[in-house]
Structures are given as C-alpha cells and as structure tokens.
Specification:
Layout (H helix, E strand, L loop, with lengths): L1 E6 L3 H12 L4 E5 L12 E2 L1 H8 L4 H5 L3 E3 L1 E2 L8 E2 L10 E3 L2 H14 L3 E4 L2 E7 L4 E7 L2 E12 L6 H5 L6 E2 L4 E8 L20 E5 L2 E9 L2 E8 L13 H12 L6 E10 L2 E3 L4 E2 L2 E3 L5 E2 L7 H20 L9 H25 L4 H13 L3 H12 L43 E4 L13 E4 L16 E4 L5 E5 L4 H13 L4
Parallel strand pairs: 1-2, 1-11, 2-8, 11-20, 22-23
Antiparallel strand pairs: 3-7, 4-7, 5-6, 9-10, 10-11, 12-18, 13-16, 13-17, 14-15, 15-16, 18-21, 19-20, 22-24, 24-25
Length: 501
Amino acid sequence: MLDVLVAGAGPVGLWLAAELRLHGVEVTVVERRTAPDGRSRAVGMQAGTLDTFATRGLAERFIERGTPVPTGHFGAATTRLDFSTIGAVHPFMLGLGQSVTERLLEEHAVAVGARVLRGQEVVSLTQGPDAVEVVLRADGAHRTVRARWVVGCDGTRSAVRQAAGIDFPGQDTTMTGWLADVELDVELAAGPDGPPTAPPTAPIAATGPAGSFLAVPIGDGVHRLAGLSTATMHRGTGEPLTLEEVREQTRALLGRDLAIRNPRWLSRYGNATRQAAHYRAGRVLLAGDAAHMFFPAGGQGMNLGIQDAANLGWKLAAVLQGRAPDALLDSYEAERRPAARAVIDNTRAQLALFAAASPEQIALREVWSEALADPRTNRRWARRIAGFDDPLPATAPGAHPLTGTRLAGLALAAADAPTPHPLMHHGRPLLLDLAGTRTPCPAPGPDRRTVAVNAGESHPLWRDVTAVLIRPDARIAWASTEADPQRRAADCLTALRGLCR
C-alpha cells in the first residue's frame, strides 16, 4: 500500500511530493500526460514562492534561470507595486516559464525519493476506513492501487475532485483576454518612428479606452505579452489566437508595432472563477487548481498552489506518521481556503481595472493608481500579491502580532544564515532564541538555535521578540516578548503541542 498518491505532476503536486519525502513518507505521483508540457504557461514566480524554496536551499536554482522583476502590477493601475519593501529574502518576482519550473521541481522530487509515473490517469476512487482504492488507466489498461491518502493536484478539471464528489461552485467565463510568448525586435519605449534597439528588460504596461496591455521578460529572449481588449473580450477561450491578431491587438492597445516574431505559445484565457466546496473528503485532499481557479492577474495561481502544498505537506506527514492528531489536517482547509478567497477577490478587482472602458471605470483606475502611490498602501498590496499577507484564522487572545504570518523581515547576525531560511532545510519546526538565553523547552522534534538579531536590518515588529517558533512551511507558530526563560518555555511547549507530539 502507498502512503500517499498524488495526482498531477505540475508544480503543486511535485512540491507536495518533495515535502512529504522530506519527512520520510513514501509518495507516488501519477500524471496523465506522457511527457512534460513544454508551454511556458505560469511565468511569474512570486517572492513568497522563492522564499519557500529558500527554506529548502533551492531558490538559486530557479533564480539563475529566470529574470528578476523588481515591481509588479495590480490590474491596470499605472503605479507599480514595489517588492523591495516587503521584507522578503528575494524581493522580486521571477520571470520563468512553467516548463522550466516543473523540470526543476521534478528533478528535486525524484532526487529526494518520490516516484513520478507518467501516462497514468485517475479514473475513479473508492474510500475505505483505512485507505483509498484508486483505479488508474495507462495505455488503455486499468489497474487498482491502494493508498492511505490521495491528494488531487490535477488542475481545474480534477478527476480526483470529481471522483471524491466534491462540488466546484462558481461562475463561468464572461470575458477573455489573450497572451502570447514571443520574441521582440524593438524597444517598447521607443516612439513609432524610433530606431530598433535591444528588447526591453523591464515590464511595460499601457492602458486606455481600448483596454490594457502588459509585456514582461521571462528569460531566453522571450517576452510574455498579455492583453485585454474591450473590442475582443467576449470571444470564446476556444477560439484560436493567431500571431497576426496579436500584432493587431498590440498596435491597438500599445499604439505601436513591436516587430513580434517566433511565437512560443498563443492562447486566450477567461475569468471563470471557482472554489471547491471542501478541500478534504475523508482521505482525499485537494490542492492548487483542483481547489481553486480565477482570472490570472498578478501571477498568483501557481504561487497560491505551491503554498497549499507547503501548508499540507508537513501536516499530512505528521498525521500519517502518528505525530499529530487527525484534527491537524482540518487546519489545512481553515488556513488555505481564506487565502484562496482573498486571491479570488483581488483578481476580480484587477479584472475590473483591466477592462475599464467607461469614464467612471477609467476614473476608478486612476484613483486606485493614486492610492498605490502611498508607501503603506503599496507595501500592503505588494506583500499580498507576493504571497505574504493572506488572511488567517483568528489567533488566541494576547498572541503576538507575528503569530500566523509568513516569515519575513527577520535579519540574523550570521554570515552563514543571514535569515532563518538556511536553518530550515530539514523541514522541522525551528525554535529560535533571540534574547541570548536558551529557552529550556523539553519537547522533541524542533531544531533549536540561539541566534543574534541584526536589529538594523530587521522589521520593527521583531524588535522586542525574545523567541520564535517557525513552522515547517515558514509561518510563525508562536512569538514571545517574555524575558523569563521558564515562562517562555511553558508557552513554547503549548505552541509545540499544536504542531506535533
């Protein structure tokens, strides 16, 4: 019997498999496709995802293959979001094709012991009290496997979700945009009569009554172009997109020709928005696009799914291995469902700005652009888009404001570990004593370190913190300003019991 069967070898399924293997769980990933998908698809890797990869020592593998982009967008607002303010280890978005992301994640998952089986499709499943029987189809033949747990990471049409009987309510597509991964010959900032120069290395955006246009470099000389035109936004997602239409739309939305050539991928996308009624049904769980879908604004889809996997991986391992009660898995949906709901809301708001055509709508876009010029507002939304400020369930009365938040803004005075991320490669909870007096916590499990804080580089929220317990997914489980080590230890032990035995 398998410990865990993961359906879907996209970024979410592969990261989940690697996280489960980090805890010694036997995991098999099955994928309907017989070969990796070469399309670029999701091209924005947010700072939150890069910081997650940094906790396992992997971020540089992606950064060296991508293009760092220091700012982001909220809809068609003309004021850019400044990622340098968010407290991330990697304060930028990375332009990188999903095909490269998947290749690197599969290499990592296989290296730590996960099995990835391609050309195998989930047909049906039946749950029992101790296991799930899954019927798989491969080369026209069927076989049955048993697994203690099954996780559907198999996209918006998830066979696992359907087989588990989990509803996927929401709205169908009402408007469409288009995207194209192409090579460019001219500088976007040049005028219509300007001479050809090197392709742009920074994002370029344009808005107007005709719609919105965005171009972002994604590496290897390729740019992702995306447009939403008021003239064509009601075409169906299945209607083919041609290179000539991309050229016409670019001229209409941007006001100039870009000498576009060598298309790698042309596609239309819609604003269909859905969220699974539940993220768990017995021994079946959902993550990524199988649990939520929305308009692809701000590069949040893949990143939200990877955070699903980061949240679920250590919890499922702890429950499976008897180190935590089954109730710990209930916190997965309790934490990740509001996070997806918040992204659904902000992508709907972004779509309203992208599609602004009337004087009232255009005025709204201009007012929002002005609001983002305020540093506090800009930082708030930069953190949200980057994956740091998703809403969480209410914390206990008296809890420190850091409790439940993503690890960010803590600088350490150590050359080998300037932040806590290099100390988390083991995937266990991390207890940091920041006051120089070791917290005498008797519980097994967490790694314990006494470290000095670089106060000049840390966010003010960390100023009086004497100890912090960091979950394996880099969220703060507990933070204390208590000076007495014994009282601190008692509080820490209570927090630890909520994570594992």
